[in-house]
User: What shape does this take?
Amino acid sequence: MKPFLKKSIDNIKIKSEHFALKLKRPIKKSVEIVMSNRLSATGFVMIVIFVLIGIAYFIFGNHVVPYNPLKINLSDVNAPPSIHHLFGTDQLGRDIFSRVIAAIPVDIGLAVFIVLISAFVGLLLGTIAGYFRGIVEEVIMRLTDLFFAFPPLIMSMAVAATLGPSLFNAAFSIIFVWWPPYVRLVRGSTLQVAASDFITMSKVLNTRFSKILVKGILPNIATTLVVYATMDIGTAMLTLSTLGFLNIGIPVYQPELGIMSSILTQSLYSDPLEGLIPAFFLFLIVMGFSLMGEGMAQIIDPNIRSHLFSRRRRLEEMKKSNKGTSKTVE
Amino acid sequence: MEGKRELAYFILKRAALSVLVVLGTIIIVFLISHYLSKNPAALWAGPKARPATIAYVINRYGLNKPIWFQLSLFIKDFFTGNYGTDPVTNLPISYEIFLYFPNTIELILTSLVIIVILGVGLGYISAINFGTKKDAFIRILYTGAWAAPTFLVSILAIIIFSSYIPVFPSGGMFSAITIPPPHITGLSILDSLLTLNFPDFVDGIYHIILPALVLAFLNFGIITRISRNGILGVKWLPYVKSARARGLDERSVNRRHILRNGLVESNTVIAVMFGWLITGDVVVEEIFSWPGIGKFAYTAIANDDYPVLIFIVIVFTILVIVANLIADIMYATLDPRIRLGGEE
Assistant: This one.
């Protein structure tokens, strides 16, 4: 190949239609987008707080908590909340506050791990199915349909019960049923993008598949995928903790919010706080992810976005003109 | 006439596909239960089984035979309903599953009805009042409901509505003094209505309200979000404007032009939601001591009763597959675009 031709091919920039990855400072810009909406901003702040707590525990270990979360103290069982034990102690005398702090990195970390692996599988299978079509697509999509039919928790229960309790097994058992929506999502977007002119153009110019994938398809899928994955982290965490609540997959001693809540089935009337506190923390974390996803979906959904912004502009004009009482738009 | 033949063809195709999916499910569950574990015999017999029991289990499930033999035995066991005996109650497992199955269906269908009414209604209110405080409140409500752990909501519901404000019972299907209605369809509320047994009917409704509401509260978020987005998607389209320009009042524009077209999308999630309903069902049934398959599954896990768990998994999965099939057929009859196979 002649050098100038090679160069010109390399210089062709594949345009991305959305704004996600083509920004100059992607991280700063994404934070701005998230903070521009009240819902996603609230969620984002909640997540940042919990992630910081999780990272702190992950790095410093038991130095950041008042008690060792695994230490059993049978002389101080079922203590109510007090200055010594902020949230009280559980049926084996373990400090609940320390256990909740210790559980946060486990829950968030595993949920992120589940979603990342599922998104990766989805990206791999979905782009292949959407780009190459034909028999490959047929095989991948029928397999996806099969796994899509499984009710999420139920099949995880079977896998987790088979593999035995360990954190990795619990995560694996959820990944086992978690990837099909990602394949569908990515394939759908890939079909749309692959039909557009700039991809055809790159094909004509004999661009490598990996380059088309990274520079052409990925930026266009990214926004949808990121929004879906953000909302999904919360759901993955809920499913994981439900496995914990049912006492399968996760080791019994492990500080994990679901397993800590499972005491509720025994001590509902005698000492409900023991289980309600971890459950409430779980709710807060999941709520953070859901709020952020919900707000981001509102910004990114093109259907609503155009009207949202035009309506906002109109309302701003109205505000300027009469300066009196005005409707609030978030 | 052309349409009818197409519809029949579509239904036949979907039914055949569903049968294949059921077979695939059984094979995958078989692979999980026989090959994911290092020692399937110990798994099937239970963690503290005696050597004699393990030997019996190896013989019973043919674990020392070739794969194809094990698989064919597994499939045969499934279709003949020969799942073995529950070691705790000493009853055949298939009998127990059929005993508990209608109760689960009853709970799930009741909450599905609540979800559709609640979800679509809230989605409509939220979309019509787009951008106002009402809209923001509904969105926070459904996001929160979707984010809440099942056990938190169930326990709070019991504490609030049965301990502090004792309006609802904390669990069970009937009061202790009530004689359950005779077994006709298995759905006990329907049975009590069929036999004109009104005290039973009222008691059954009284007991189902709290668990069904909890299950509905946890899952109405998807429907609300989808119907809200669907309605917002058509709200600003030109045909709505033209309807207003023709002088129709706001109410009938909202109902007839916006709501109907906006609801098309929310149909498609009902089937997906069925899977999530079953997921929540396991925990809700255990906490409300509702004698359904979910509680049965919980007991099986607590007793390390692996064979029971495996068959419950298959039964639940088939339930979801059948729900999907019914949903697909319903949409195809309602919306011709689906059966004519429009490319997405």
